[in-house]
Design brief:
The chain is α/β, with parallel strands linked by helices and about 270 residues long. It contains eleven helices and twelve strands.
Length: about 270
């Protein structure tokens, strides 16, 4: 986290904050607060505080909410005290981390609430900004959703392109995946009912229904008929259709937009003394 913060601060400050140098006296100390300007779910609060103290260890931060907390407009998220120049120089970087991660947590929470009362779990994907995956997945958890695999190393996910490149059938690919996976989860992506039937015969841990329409999803649940593989829906999921998908009887719904398209939560810093 500190390495990432240092890179972000360097990107923003560069050779120096010329505005703060010109306008703010060198020894001036202030107190400021970061507040929410819209409703949402907090994530990245410690990251924001660490941004200030990484730039200037003499700054003092107080956290007023924890990750996963509900925010309303005007809610104080954290306060920071110390050198005014340092606070002004770290402000945007701290807000960027906080707003981005809280936005992910907020959207995740909205999807979780949309499927409440069903068996379906909401999961993220690997569609994250490079270098920010661990933070993004943490924010997903703060919103009450679950993480899919962290990367290519912790689960076997056999996609259509793997089958095309290898020339293997679904059954053969799942068998090889099982042998190579150890205790890791084996997931296979299917596009048609015929592929679903082949996947059911192969018995992976999870069958992923990629971009399936609702009637076909319902048919897939009937075909599984209580058998072992979990059914996961991925692709084309929105807040308007996710509950209908969940009520069809699937076990998991993975949603890329949790991390690649979540709107940043509106947060701002205000000097108070």
């Amino acid at each position: 986290m500190k390495q990432l913060i240092r890179q972000a601060l360097k990107e923003d400050i560069g050779s120096g904050d010329v505005t703060s140098r010109a306008v703010i006296p060198a020894g001036l100390c202030i107190r400021a607060r970061i507040l929410a300007k819209s409703s949402g779910v907090a994530a990245g609060v410690k990251m924001a505080a660490l941004t200030f103290t990484t730039l200037d260890p003499s700054l003092r931060c107080r956290l007023h909410v924890r990750s996963g907390a509900q925010l309303r407009p005007g809610k104080t998220i954290l306060t920071v005290e110390g050198r005014a120049r340092s606070i002004m120089s770290a402000e945007r970087t701290a807000l960027n981390f906080l707003g981005h991660l809280s936005g992910i947590a907020t959207l995740s929470y909205q999807f979780v609430q949309a499927v409440r009362g069903t068996r379906a779990k909401i999961l993220d994907t690997r569609k994250t900004i490079p270098g920010l995956r661990r933070l993004a997945k943490y924010a997903v958890r703060a919103g009450g959703a679950y993480n899919h695999r962290e990367g290519l190393f912790d689960a076997v996910l056999i996609k259509t392109n793997h089958l095309r490149a290898s020339g293997l059938s679904i059954e053969e690919a799942v068998q090889r995946g099982r042998r190579g996976a150890g205790r890791k989860e084996v997931v296979v992506e299917v596009r048609t009912l015929a592929e679903l039937k082949a996947a059911l015969r192969a018995e992976p841990d999870v069958i992923m229904l990629d971009n399936w329409r609702l009637p076909a999803i319902r048919q897939a649940v009937r075909l599984r008929d209580g058998r072992k593989p979990l059914l996961e829906v991925s692709g084309g999921v929105t807040l308007s259709n996710v509950r209908a998908i969940a009520k069809a009887g699937v076990d998991r719904i993975s949603i890329g937009r949790l991390t690649h398209s979540a709107p940043s939560l509106d947060v701002s810093l205000r000097v108070i003394s």
